[in-house]
Amino acid sequence: MTVLLQANDVSLSSRDGKRLVEQVSLTLNTGEVVGVIGPNGAGKSSLIKLLTGLRKPDSGTVLLDGVELGLHDPTQRARRIGYVEQRPHLYWPLTVMQVVALARLVHGDADTPAGHAILDEALHTVGIRYLAQRQFLQLSEGEKLLVNLARILAAQPGLIIADEPTAALDPARQLEVMQLLHQQARNGAGVLLVLHELTLAARYCDRLLLMQNARVFAEGTASEVLTRDNLRSVYQLDAQLDWPTRTVIIDTATG
Amino acid sequence: MKYAWLILILLPILALVELASGPAHINVMHAIADLVQNRDSVERIIVLEVRLPRTLLAILCGAALAISGAALQGLLRNPLASPDLLGISQTSALMAVIALYFGFSLQAWFVLPLAALGGATLAVLVLLRLTRDLNGTEGLILAGIALTALAGSLTTFTLTFAPNPYALQDAYFWLLGSIGNRSGDDVWLALPFMLAGTALLLSCSRCLDALSLGEDTASALGFPLPRYRWRLIVGVACNIGAAVAVSGSIGFVGLMVPHILRSLCTAEPSRVLRWSIPGGAVLVLLADVIVQHLPANEELPLGVLTALLGGPFFLLLLLRHRSRA
């Protein structure tokens, strides 16, 4: 296992001084799926922005392949990190194929047979080849998410960072997407996901980072993080992880 | 790109028709033959000194205005953005008018285009600052209305202090937009700025494609906007500044051409950008041929015709945009 991404005590504040991320550290290795979980407003998406280089930390460092993220050329960084936004918005009426082809912009081979084969394979892997010539804007939210996932696969990055990749998907598709991301990790990529669905997090993530109020509340394997006490403190839920089935069973809400 | 070839066929045809258009009835083919064989003739002089500069300016201004519209729409990710609707042309014209009517343009040949370029840069910067706080299409259009009104009134205000008592009337007609009575000097004045501006804009074409998915995704795709923003601003300013300096304010070209391309060919911003060059040239050539053939007592300013076409086009777009929203 090689360290792909490493954050050391990173902090970030909003313009009005609100703490969004406070002294968070994490490591992502090759072949590993790490899940970032936590209630709304815990700082998960802000952390993702720091890890993808979209925002610079106020303090602390983020290292990609051992080199500070800001020192990487943007093109180089784009080849290494594939980022799926929470709610990506398309501003022009492009087809699915044209959207997925954006992944090859930095490679400059979208119009070549080799590039086309990569795009076609990405669509095939996600199972949306039949959507290739459809207008992206006319798709359902779930389908749009799959297209963006195909876009990430088409970039062939070593590291995939996705902000809620299963939101707006039906349960069957959620499982498919998680299996797909898991497979990418098994093929050698590092995968970092923000997830709301705790059962999916328990089932598919090798390690979890539980965030609350911009800080890391707990970190470790699912059984270490998804304890009754942690879930009560962070989510105000009476819930527990059923380890054999890796399912989070909610008894009641306490809050 | 199924209809794109049509543009490439129309361009030389319209250029020939433009060369053949004018008050004097001459045979263009004879003139071209004289030109090739280096024979002196009246026809050759008319074509070389009068009609060729006009044709070239139609092509250059059309291309410059259209590619600027396409670049602005891509940068702001707004289909209703164009240099004239956002007040960029008007601010550019304000600076050009100051340079023209207060004698600054006599100091050196590049003062006029540089002044117009400076005005355009200022306008784009103000707009970018405003659009950070004003979200959405409405905010952008309102900012454009404010900037247009301000630039227009400042132009009139400035001209009332001009040393030339006829400055206001002169400038009024100049601002309506025209490429008539221009010489080869005007072509040489605009060409370097337009070439530089177009090269800058074309170098951003892949960034504009990435921006289709918003600033964050574009950055994640390897195209951080801060790195390209200045190239786009200077590219638009060079094109608009040069076009305004030689032709006044020809409106709606930057709005209409990218839209027509999007409905006929493709919505990919890089392709819209590239095809706007011949597309804009075709539209302005066509409009200039029409104004020269209208049975009016005086030639209708080109900008008036493009506004007559573009105004309803803009309203239709606005309605369609609202119904979609």
Summarize the structure.
The complex is a heterodimer of chains A (255) and B (325). Chain A is an alpha/beta fold.
Describe this structure as you would to a colleague:
The complex is a heterodimer of chains A (255) and B (325). Chain A has 255 residues and is α/β, with parallel strands linked by helices. Chain A has one domain: P-loop containing nucleotide triphosphate hydrolases (Rossmann fold, 3-Layer(aba) Sandwich). Chain A is built from 9 helices and 12 strands. Chain A has helices at residues 44-52, 74-80, 96-101, 113-126, 141-154, 171-186, 198-204, 222-225, 228-235; strands spanning 3-13, 19-29, 33-37, 59-64, 67-68, 81-84, 159-163, 190-194, 207-212, 215-220, 237-242, 247-253. Chain A has a 6-stranded mixed sheet with strand order 6-7-8-3-9-10, sandwiched between helices. In chain A, helix 4 packs across helix 5 (141-154). The model of chain A has no long low-confidence stretch (mean pLDDT 91). With 325 residues, chain B is mainly α. Chain B has a single domain (54-324), classed as ABC transporter involved in vitamin B12 uptake, BtuC, CATH 1.10.3470.10. Chain B contains 14 helices and no strands. Chain B has helices spanning 4-20, 28-36, 42-76, 88-101, 111-133, 136-159, 167-175, 184-202, 205-210, 214-220, 225-247, 253-264, 269-293, 302-324. In chain B, helix 3 (42-76) runs parallel beside helix 8 and helix 4 (88-101) packs parallel to helix 6 (136-159). The longest helix of chain B has 35 residues, at 42-76. Chain B is globular. Chain B starts with a helix and ends with a helix. Chain A binds chain B through residues 49, 52-54, 74-75, 77-79, 81-83, 85, 88-94, 98-99, 102-103, 105-106, and chain B through 77-78, 206, 209-214, 216-217, 219-224, 227, 262, 267-269.
